[in-house]
């Protein structure tokens, strides 16, 4: 009986470890998904600056975030072929989410502007820009989309 009991206990611990690993993956995915959603809501919004998406993205904190997006998703090798590195993307997004003090070099597409910033700086820019987006209270949160039904909730900014 003792041998069988230890076998079952070992199985239970293995199952616990597997469930714990899967939970960690889901938490990781959720964090990165929220971060990507925020970045995409911030960048190139035509409704924020007289219907000119570039004017909104080319100013202040949003410009750094636009350069960061290019750094992460639009890298090219020396021969101008696109770099496809999912591991590098996840690693960079994790550093942004945490706000590490590691420095990165951001360059504009025309190569006329080069900035050295930390992930902590970029995280602060993202938080400020997202806060600006929500600040005036003029936005709608959509919850649930079943069979064409969209439930809208209006929010107002708190002073």
UniProtKB/TrEMBL annotation:
<keyword id="KW-0963">Cytoplasm</keyword>
<keyword id="KW-0175">Coiled coil</keyword>
<keyword id="KW-0067">ATP-binding</keyword>
<dbReference type="GO" id="GO:0031251">
    <property type="term" value="C:PAN complex"/>
</dbReference>
<protein>
    <recommendedName>
        <fullName>Pan3 C-terminal knob domain-containing protein</fullName>
    </recommendedName>
</protein>
<dbReference type="GO" id="GO:0008143">
    <property type="term" value="F:poly(A) binding"/>
</dbReference>
<feature type="domain" description="Pan3 C-terminal knob">
    <location>
        <begin position="2"/>
        <end position="133"/>
    </location>
</feature>
<keyword id="KW-0547">Nucleotide-binding</keyword>
<dbReference type="InterPro" id="IPR041332">
    <property type="entry name" value="Pan3_CK"/>
</dbReference>
<dbReference type="GO" id="GO:0005524">
    <property type="term" value="F:ATP binding"/>
</dbReference>
<dbReference type="GO" id="GO:0000289">
    <property type="term" value="P:nuclear-transcribed mRNA poly(A) tail shortening"/>
</dbReference>
<dbReference type="GO" id="GO:0000932">
    <property type="term" value="C:P-body"/>
</dbReference>
<dbReference type="Pfam" id="PF18101">
    <property type="entry name" value="Pan3_CK"/>
</dbReference>
<dbReference type="InterPro" id="IPR030844">
    <property type="entry name" value="PAN3"/>
</dbReference>
<keyword id="KW-0507">mRNA processing</keyword>
<dbReference type="GO" id="GO:0006397">
    <property type="term" value="P:mRNA processing"/>
</dbReference>
């Amino acid at each position: 009986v003792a041998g069988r009991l230890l076998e079952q206990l070992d199985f239970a611990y293995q199952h616990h470890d597997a469930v714990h690993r899967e939970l960690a993956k889901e938490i990781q995915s959720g964090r990165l998904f929220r971060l990507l959603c925020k970045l995409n809501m911030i960048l190139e919004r035509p409704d924020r600056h007289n219907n000119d998406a570039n004017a909104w993205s080319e100013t202040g904190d949003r410009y750094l975030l636009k350069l960061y997006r290019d750094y992460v998703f639009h890298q090219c090798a020396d021969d101008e072929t696109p770099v496809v590195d999912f591991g590098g993307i996840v690693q960079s997004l994790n550093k942004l989410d945490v706000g590490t003090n590691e420095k990165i070099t951001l360059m504009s597409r025309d190569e006329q502007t080069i900035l050295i910033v930390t992930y902590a700086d970029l995280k602060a820019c993202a938080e400020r820009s997202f806060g600006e987006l929500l600040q005036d209270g003029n936005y709608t949160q959509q919850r649930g989309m079943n069979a064409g039904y969209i439930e809208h909730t209006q929010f107002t900014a708190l002073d």
